[in-house]
Description:
Helix content: over 70%
Number of strands: 0
CATH architecture of one domain: Alpha Horseshoe
Distance between the termini: 38 Å
CATH topology of one domain: Serine Threonine Protein Phosphatase 5, Tetratricopeptide repeat
Largest sheet: none
Radius of gyration: 19 Å
Strand content: under 5%
Number of helices: 14
Amino acid sequence: xxxxxxxxxxxxxxxxxxxxxxxxxxxxxxxxxxxxxxxxxxxxxxxxxxxxxxxxxxxxxxxxxxxxxxxxxxxxxxxxxxxxxxxxxxxxxxxxxxxxxxxxxxxxxxxxxxxxxxxxxxxxxxxxxxxxxxxxxxxxxxxxxxxxxxxxxxxxxxxxxxxxxxxxxxxxxxxxxxxxxxxxxxxxxxxxxxxxxxxxxxxxxxxxxxxxxxxxxxxxxxxxxxxxxxxxxxxxxxxxxxxxxxxxxxxxxxxxxxxxxxxxxxxxxxxxxxxxxxxx
Length: 280
């Protein structure tokens, strides 16, 4: 196996431990530098774009994806990675521009349908369906959201981590639609699967955020606060600023609702620090 691919395998291992940690970033940077040809460089750059997206460096990710798009036209494996490039570009817009993100996700699915079926193509299509489901959920189009989530599951791999995320996102949609009992079932399944793969990085943070929403709906404010604080602490530990900001925003709303204004001021201050640090 080429040195670059070994380093990318190492980066994938680090992602399960600390998704945005220095070890993962260093391994991918080393893979880029060790690339012997355009194919190896393309694979390494594509993984780097995901790290940048995970750490909320969206403009930097799009710059990297520009080079990926150029390399895809001149490499042997480039066309098979085009759905992944398009999906990654959609992800880079997802947190600020749903309309543009949706356009790239739809294009990724279209290209995937026209491509030879490979694990990479299937994963890219599944990810695109996943984000389309989240966009529709944000728009409160629950039936469309559930449709895209089911399409995701049909395209995704069967690893326990992948299934854990599927149950988590399905629970989010069901909570939004007010179907509490079914949402609770999927959260239990997600928690069990994350525990079985010892997922201690961003997955557990996202799970705790959704569990906190469930506890709030059930009126268990103290438990919701504990879950949010756990999510914030874990996100900070694993260099996951987007997760930390989401947790801080939910905690701020809870503190204001309970008239804990001094605590709310501290939470707001921390949120502003994280936000501007990531934009610098």
